[in-house]
Automatic annotation (TrEMBL):
N-terminal signal peptide: 1-20
GO MF, one annotated term: beta-catenin binding
Biological processes annotated in GO: adherens junction organization; calcium-dependent cell-cell adhesion via plasma membrane cell adhesion molecules; cell migration; cell morphogenesis; cell-cell adhesion mediated by cadherin; cell-cell junction assembly; homophilic cell adhesion via plasma membrane adhesion molecules; morphogenesis of an epithelium
Cadherin domain segment(s): 75-155, 156-264, 265-381, 382-486, 486-600
Membrane topology: Single-pass type I membrane protein
Cited Pfam families: CADH_Y-type_LIR, Cadherin
Compartments it resides in: Cell membrane
TM spans (from-to): 599-630
UniProt entry keywords in alphabetical sequence: Calcium, Cell adhesion, Cell membrane, Cleavage on pair of basic residues, Glycoprotein, Membrane, Metal-binding, Repeat, Signal, Transmembrane, Transmembrane helix
Protein name: Cadherin-10
Taxonomic source organism: Oncorhynchus tshawytscha
Cited PANTHER family: CADHERIN-23, CADHERIN-6
Chain's role: Cadherins are calcium-dependent cell adhesion proteins. They preferentially interact with themselves in a homophilic manner in connecting cells; cadherins may thus contribute to the sorting of heterogeneous cell types.
Length: 785
């Protein structure tokens, strides 16, 4: 290490003199020392450099007032005559480094920091001042900044975060923290760091060489203390006195392990619920505590008593880790009022390391007592549903079956029965409201309906809101009350050239009854027939066979064959069906060519003629219908109400056409809203007035109380009359009222009161009373005068 108090002068070593030899023409010698070399028999002189050096050392962070001395360049070409000039080039020359061109002394003008730049590369050469000729060629050398301990260790983070599982063994690695020192690590101890723990004992320790933090105590419990703050120091100079140091904080969290079992804070829970609670309904919650967190705190509950397992079930609320007790089976207060059972809680995820620890068992239990509260319940039927069988054709009022319901509450209220008539629209059944006996109101027919589904309602007499419905399925059993008949309509024909014993038709039968052993029909004829015979196939079918040949359409074109069909049920039912056999003309292979109907047509009119006649008839009918419609429109309209006693809701249609946009007086809708404002003096423009000067009489008394009372009284009498028809009716009454203010116009009784009357109102009665008004009003005026 070179200090500022020493100067280093690199002198050029003088080599041993060699005997001078003559030089070849054109060769120069620019080095001070020479050594002989042979070239084609001639001895040459090789110049050797006279200075041997390549590196200076400079101490960083110089604190002096003057420029810092670096070193001195000197060449043996410099004999002190002042003819030699030293030239310096390279990094920082002129700004950081200066050279005395006469003496070769190098100085640093600024304080240098090794951490910014550790080495500078420079070039030096020597020239002749007068001729500027190079005396020493350009040579490279380095200025290396020498390090001092001026940088403290630094950690990459101010705060580190780490975690370690709780209950870890001693020496478990937590985290490694490292610091860096900007000083030179290759020189001295300036960058040699030593780690130590300032805060965090005795829980943790740190490796002094690499900064690894480890646990120092066994069985550290997160539930006791979860977070720790550890302060780590890094010191250079190998930790010796005077070294620089840096610190950092490590926040260490103990991660949870499943080392704590769940525990009930209360080992007895009391719950209550109504007996009407539905299956699946929650009746209460219980809670166990677990000091662990997260996944390790998840719990599952179970009912361990058989008594409770059948009636209740328990699940875990994943959000709150509470046990939710639900109803598993319908409760019944009358059967059992209280339940007691044990509930056990365990962790969902168990850690085998702690299951066999000296702690108590890794589970806990509690007793749950549930009290059932009574509820007024509806009646309960003894069966649900009821299936009853009854034979068809049973007389009305016959017994069908009995339903029974009972109030299971402690009060055991009596029950009444009824049939929901929405399920018995035809009113086929009735039920006794006291004992629940179902009887028929009408005879039942299985062929109309095989099943009848009705609903019976049981209602508590003391509390009609408590009702129960039960379906009753009534099956109508079959009775052999229907005779068999042909399965279809048969179009049977026989050829004129048929032979005796030939099959012309196969028939079958159907029966709407359903015997238990199946149908068995017997076919026969009601009397012996010389033309045809019937043979029973004994499989519910029969064959019609001809007994002769030589049928002729001219003799008889249709034969009616009565066939008797009987069943084998009890009582035996039989019917006679008639089979119509038409005689037809056939070819030799038995194919029908024409029957009696076609023969008649061919003998008379052709098919085209018949179609033409049919079209004419249709056209004639259409003309008649059209004529009748026109005549109906020309008839006088019938009165809207034919009879005063037959007044119902009627829709009246008027076919009157208005007078257009100028028709402003034909109809005033305001009259309907307020009849009192009707202007009776306006004339309609769309009709011819019946009188030239129509007038309207305004009643001087707007509120005819006597007429109103009379109408209301008659309306009340008709509303309360039980014999009144169930539809709107019109009643007509003749009532004159209590009289007019004008009283009688006769002069027989007006002699005494003529002077007391005022006749101004006569002017309001219209033009017909104008003359009379002028007479009486004029008399009054003269009398006053």
């Amino acid at each position: 290490m070179i200090t500022n108090h020493f100067q280093i002068i690199f002198m050029v070593s003088i080599l041993r003199p060699i005997t001078a030899l003559p030089m070849a023409p054109g060769n120069t010698v620019n080095l001070l020392g020479t050594s002989p070399e042979k070239d084609d028999g001639k001895i040459l002189q090789r110049a050797k450099r006279g200075w041997m050096w390549n590196q200076f050392f400079l101490l960083e962070e110089y604190t002096g007032n003057d420029n810092q001395y670096v070193g001195k360049l000197h060449s043996n070409m410099d004999r002190g005559e002042g003819n030699v000039k030293y030239i310096l080039t390279g990094d920082g020359v002129g700004s950081l480094f200066l050279i005395d061109e006469n003496s070769g002394d190098i100085h640093a003008t600024k304080r240098l920091d090794r951490e910014e730049r550790a080495i500078y590369t420079l070039h030096a050469k020597v020239v002749d001042k007068r001729t500027n000729k190079t005396l020493e060629a350009d040579t490279e050398f380095n200025i290396k900044i020498h390090d001092i301990n001026d940088n403290e260790p630094k950690f990459s983070k101010d705060i580190y975060f780490a975690s370690v599982p709780e209950m870890s063994d001693v020496g478990t690695s937590v985290i490694q923290v490292t610091a860096t020192d900007a000083d030179d690590q290759t020189y001295g101890n300036s960058a040699k760091l030593v780690y130590s723990i300032l805060q965090g004992q005795p829980y943790f320790s740190v490796d002094s060489d690499n900064g690894t933090i480890r646990t120092a105590l066994p069985n550290m419990d997160r539930e006791t203390k979860e977070n720790y703050q550890v302060v780590i120091q890094a010191k250079d100079m190998a930790g010796q006195m005077g070294g620089l140091s840096g610190t950092t904080t490590v926040s260490i969290t103990l991660s949870d392990e499943n080392d704590s079992p769940p525990r009930f804070a209360n080992h007895t829970f009391r719950l209550s619920t109504l007996e009407s609670a539905e299956v699946g309904a929650a009746i209460g919650r219980i809670k166990a505590n677990d000091a662990d967190v997260g996944r390790n705190a998840e719990m599952q509950y179970s009912i361990v008593d058989r008594d409770g397992q059948d009636i209740f079930t328990i699940i875990t609320d994943q959000n709150t880790q509470e046990g939710i007790i639900r109803v598993k089976k319908q409760l019944d207060y009358e059967r059992k009022k209280t339940f007691s059972f044990k509930v056990e809680v365990t962790n969902t995820y168990l850690d085998p390391r702690f299951m066999y620890s000296p702690n108590p068992p890794f589970k806990d239990d509690a007793m749950v007592r549930v009290t059932i509260e009574d509820v007024d319940e509806p009646p309960v039927f003894s069966r649900n549903p009821y299936i009853i069988e009854v034979h068809e054709d049973t007389a009305a009022g016959s017994f069908v079956g009995v339903v029974s319901a009972k109030d299971l509450d402690a009060d055991n209220n009596p029950v009444k029965y009824s049939i929901d008539r929405h399920t018995d629209l035809e009113r086929l059944f009735n039920i006794d409201s006291v004992n629940g006996t179902i009887t028929t109101l009408k005879a039942l027919d299985r062929e109309m309906s095989k099943w009848h589904n009705i609903s019976v309602v049981a209602t508590e007499i003391s509390n009609p809101r408590q009702t129960t419905r039960v379906p009753v399925f009534i099956r109508v059993l079959d009775v052999n009350d229907n005779a068999p008949e042909f399965a279809m309509y048969y179009e049977t024909f026989v050829c004129e050239n048929v032979k005796s014993g030939q099959l012309i038709q196969t028939i079958s039968a159907v029966d709407t009854d359903e015997p238990l052993v199946g149908h068995k029909f017997v076919f026969s004829m009601s009397f012996s027939n010389p033309n045809f015979t019937i043979i029973d196939n004994e499989d519910n079918t029969a064959r019609i066979i001809t007994r002769r040949g030589g049928f002729s359409q001219r003799e008889m074109n249709t034969y009616l064959l009565p066939v008797v069909i009987s069943d084998n049920d009890y009582p035996i039912q039989s019917s006679t069906s008639t089979l119509t056999v038409n005689v037809c003309a056939c070819d030799s292979r038995g194919n029908v060519q024409s029957c009696n109907t076609e023969a008649l047509l061919s003998a008379g009119l052709s098919t085209g003629a018949l179609v033409a006649i049919l079209l004419c008839v249709i056209i004639l009918l259409m003309i008649v219908v059209l004529f009748a419609a026109l005549r109906r429109q020309q008839r006088k309209k019938e009165p809207l109400i034919i009879s005063k006693e037959d007044v119902r809701d009627n829709v009246v249609s008027y076919n009157d056409e208005g007078g257009g946009e100028e028709d402003t007086q034909a109809f005033d809708i305001g009259t309907l809203r307020n009849p009192e404002v009707m202007d009776a003096k306006k004339l309609r423009r769309d009709i011819i007035p019946e009188m030239l000067f129509p007038f309207g009489r305004t009643s001087p008394i707007k509120d005819n109380a006597d007429v109103r009372d009379f109408i209301h009284g008659r309306l009340h009498e008709n509303d309360s009359d039980p014999t009144a028809p169930p539809y709107d009716s019109l009643a007509t009454y003749a009532y004159e009222g209590s009289g007019s203010l004008a009283e009688s116009l006769s002069s027989l009784e007006s002699g005494a009161t003529e002077g007391d009357q005022e006749y101004d109102y006569l002017s309001n009665w219209g033009p017909a009373f104008k003359k009379l008004a002028d007479m009486y009003i004029g008399k009054d005026t003269e009398r006053e005068t």
